[in-house]
Specification:
Helices cover 55% and strands 4% of the residues. The N and C termini lie far apart (34 Å). Strand 1 and strand 2 form a beta hairpin. The chain has a two-stranded antiparallel sheet. The longest helix is centred in the C-terminal third of the chain and has 24 residues. The chain has one domain: Up-down Bundle (Four Helix Bundle (Hemerythrin (Met), subunit A)), CATH 1.20.120. The chain is mostly helical.
């Protein structure tokens, strides 16, 4: 598997052996570690499911990116810098109360789906199958993987901050 294999250690590693209460700790108005893990899981599951659903599609052509999509691509995928302060897209926001077990299981399921996506679709559909990201435009599988890694690093910092407070 690709760089996604580092995500369990990166995201779940700081939470390993911690009591359930640590998964629920967050400053007012901020997500808990459990909600962060669930947010990451939602994105991984969504993108993996979309690629599997589209695997029988004819070869696709990437739509032209807007200026903002090109700028986001530059910062997030090329420079691997995830800006702070943006609100997550509506469909990727976790519920108010997310349990440790649920978030952990959903996250691991998303990773497992990506193992299957890579097995089914790479390298044959590397450059002709796309799924639209709400801020980056159409992305290939490998671009989505890169996004998930950069995105997870961003949120792993937040998890470590919550645990050190």
């Amino acid at each position: 598997m690709t760089a996604l294999s580092e995500l369990p250690t990166l995201v779940l590693g700081p939470l390993e052996g911690r009591p359930d209460g640590d998964w629920q700790r967050a400053p007012a108005g901020k997500w808990t570690p459990a909600q962060i893990v669930e947010h990451l899981a939602i994105g991984m599951n969504f993108s993996a499911d979309k690629f599997v659903a589209r695997r029988a599609h004819d070869p696709m052509v990437r739509r032209r990116r807007t200026f903002l999509e090109r700028l986001a691509h530059l910062f997030i995928l090329d420079l691997q810098w995830y800006p702070r302060g943006f609100k997550a897209p509506e469909g990727s926001r976790p519920g108010e109360r997310v349990s440790r077990a649920s978030a952990d299981a959903h996250f691991r399921a998303g990773l497992a789906k990506w193992v299957e996506v890579e097995r089914l679709l790479l390298p044959a559909r590397r450059n002709d199958l796309f799924v639209k990201h709400p801020r980056l435009g159409d992305l290939t599988m490998e671009e989505w993987i890169r996004f998930h890694v950069v995105h997870a690093r961003h949120h792993a910092r937040q998890i470590r901050e919550r645990l050190s407070a």
